Amino acid sequence: MKTNRRRFVALVAATTASTLTYPALAADPKPVIGVSLLTLANPFFVDLGEAMKREAAKHGMEVQVVSGDFDAARQRNHVADFIVRKVAAIVLSPCDSKGVGTAIEEANRAGIPVFTVDIASLGGGKVVSHIATDNLGGGRLAATALIEALGGKGKVAILDHPEIESVLMRTRGFEEELVRQKKEKGVTIEVVAKLPGGGAKDKSFKATEDLLQSHADLAGIFAINDPSALGAVAALEKAGRLSKVRVVGFDGMPEGKQAIRAGQIHADPVQFPDRIGTMAVQQIRKYLDGDDVKPEILIPTALYRKADAEKDPTLRK
Fold first, then answer.
1. Which domains does the chain have, with CATH numbers?
2. pTM (two decimals)
């Protein structure tokens, strides 16, 4: 199997070198990795992409990153372009976990290996390896943090984004941990609503306003990423209820950490995008060299609270 793969890789490299006509690539013999991320408006994905570029340079490769901007059709066009350009590998952070399958199948037919980062594909096609945060475990940590903030009781809501696989895992972990602690520790926290925040600050602001109208006794919010959490904080401040409703986010982006230090967000399960990006390129290099790679690599989160923010040298004073 390894011998056949090496032959295939050599054939692709030879074909790429002889037929590629795009000006940006024609003069550069280095293997190119085409990367389409969910968005570049979120620092998490910016850091992930930059980590991939740094690691690729160590292996004599080049990474070209584009943003899907939450648009599944746009991302399919990215994949089609990567295929035309005969890249050595494709990395996707799907804009639609189910809908991305058709694009992956196209890449499979073109003989280009596909990897996913942060968000897994739930559609068709073959993905060589998925490298991501342990979102299920992170969701459990988020529940632990909100239980801690509320003293184990109260009504809470989730600002969701169910089109994305990683978010499905976070909310599943959150809800499973609430159930577990209810059985084992008598926790009485109840999820009274799930509203789509789109993973964005503006949509989450509006969703939180709706939550406050329909649930006057709301005690807590689990927001599935930091933009969602910051949208919730803005709505709570506007309503004068920030001191009464505790917010737990997810990510650990700088603005989120600042809000934790300010006491606006209680805690975040923080991700490590640099580790994800680095590991993804390492797996691609191994695969192209004919070595076996793991189908899934999950990187644990760590809970980040106010005490951590106060000691964080990366935060501005």
1. 2-132+272-299 (3.40.50.2300), 135-271+305-310 (3.40.50.2300)
2. 0.81
